[in-house]
Structures are given as structure tokens and as C-alpha cells.
Amino acid sequence: xxxxxxxxxxxxxxxxxxxxxxxxxxxxxxxxxxxxxxxxxxxxxxxxxxxxxxxxxxxxxxxxxxxxxxxxxxxxxxxxxxxxxxxxxxxxxxxxxxxxxxxxxxxxxxxxxxxxxxxxxxxxxxxxxxxxxxxxxxxxxxxxxxxxxxxxxxxxxxxxxxxxxxxxxxxxxxxxxxxxxxxxxxxxxxxxxxxxxxxxxxxxxxxxxxxxxxxxxxxxxxxxxxxxxxxxxxxxxxxxxxxxxxxxxxxxxxxxxxxxxxxxx
Length: 265
Ligand code: DGL
Prior knowledge:
Blueprint (H helix, E strand, L loop, with lengths): L1 E5 L5 H10 L5 E5 L11 H17 L4 E4 L2 H14 L5 E2 L5 H7 L4 E6 L1 H4 L2 H10 L4 E6 L3 H7 L5 H16 L4 E4 L8 H8 L4 E3 L2 H11 L10 E5 L5 H8 L3 H10 L6 E2 L2
Parallel strand pairs: 1-2, 1-3, 2-9, 3-4, 5-6, 5-7, 7-8, 9-10
Helix pairs in contact: 1-10, 2-3, 8-9, 11-12
The structure holds D-glutamic acid.
The site of D-glutamic acid has 16 residues, from helix 3.
């Protein structure tokens, strides 16, 4: 069994990549919807939540745990690895390396939460993989919360996103790194705005490949999916349909037809 978690809906983009790569694996997804967004919280708070959720997933029998959240990875992936030394823990980090390699203008931009933007882990990643590239880190407060509402086509928000991207594109950024898993669900809007001037860099598929490397045993299973949330768990199924992930919703209802997603504090 593979456990995947995020502050809310964002990690469903990673869950989908894992489910595509491992169609028979048994999966559990935990959305910490009582505490979303993580991006505006302190490192200590995020660490406590990550340790709590990680332990819970381990108790459910997960043989690998995926932190499908850049913010939680930056703040607490090492703490989680220390607390669960026998379980492989896969984190997610902004795709600085692929973006730096692909950039022709040698200028890339990273869209992240406030917490990830100020993290030492991101600074280190940039030092390591983008020495000869200009990197602009752009915090996007409120974007993850917007994705949680599922009102992605709101015109006020569209203007906010356009205003954020325009200076980056106008000054020549040709790679936009999606440094928060929630932003994957803004891909259609972002592609409309970039209009071919920049690529979007999303590492969900790379995370799925890493899960395969670390969890060969998990590839066999009954293709079950359990959905858990710390608040309003019933919303997860509906969200899957709204986010073009109906096939995952069907996998959840088929494998747990009588079980509603369970709330855990
Ligand atoms: N989806 C998360 C990330 O990748 C966190 C968003 C939030 O809760 O602020 O950073």
C-alpha cells in the first residue's frame, strides 16, 4: 500500500501520476483539509502535521509514504524520515534541475507557497542545480486556497494570475516551475497565459518514477483507493470529478463502495 498526502487537494495531481504509473497498486490519500493552506503556517506547525499524518499512514500499513506537498517536504521530510526509519519516504521539490537544463534564456521562475519560497531547502536546490541560471522565486499566497474552492475560472483570480505572470514572461523567463502541487490544477489557465512563451515544469511524473524505484512490492495490489481527510472528507470524491480525475473517483468508490472517506484529526 502506498500512502500519499498533502494539505488538501494539490497532492491529487501526484496521486494521479502514481495511479497511472502503478495501475494495480493499493493507495491511500490523506488531505489535511482542516489545516490547509500549509504555505502560510510555521515550520513547527507543518512538522507536527507531517509527523502525525505519516504515523497514521504507517499504521494503516503503508509500505511507502509520499509527501505530495512541496511545502511539507521543505519543512519536514527529514523529520518524517527520522521518525519512520523503516519506511521509504518520497518528497516533492520544485523542478529546478529540469527547468535549468531546458532553459534557453537562462532565466527561470518558480511559483511557490510563501513557506517554500523562504525555505533553506529551496535555496539549496537552486545553489545545486541552477548555478548559471537566473532564478526568480515568486510566492503566490492564496493560490492553493483558490484551488481548494474549485472556482478556478473566477475572473478576479484570472487577473491576479495574469498580473503575476506578465512581468516574468516579459523579462524572458522561459520555464515556469510549478513549485506547489496545487498549481498543477491551474495548468489550463497558466498555459493560456504563457501562450507558448514558457514551458510549465511539473514533476509529478518524476515522483511517480521514484515511487516505483522504492516500492517494487507495491506495484501489485487490488487497485484500491481510500480517501481520508481531516475535514469535510466527503468533498474529496466530488473534487476528483471537478478536477478531471473521475477515473480516480471510480477507483475509490469501486474499492470502498460502502466506506465514506473517514475524517481523522
Ligand atoms: N500543495 C502544497 C505544496 O505543494 C501546499 C499548498 C498549501 O497548503 O499552502 O506546497
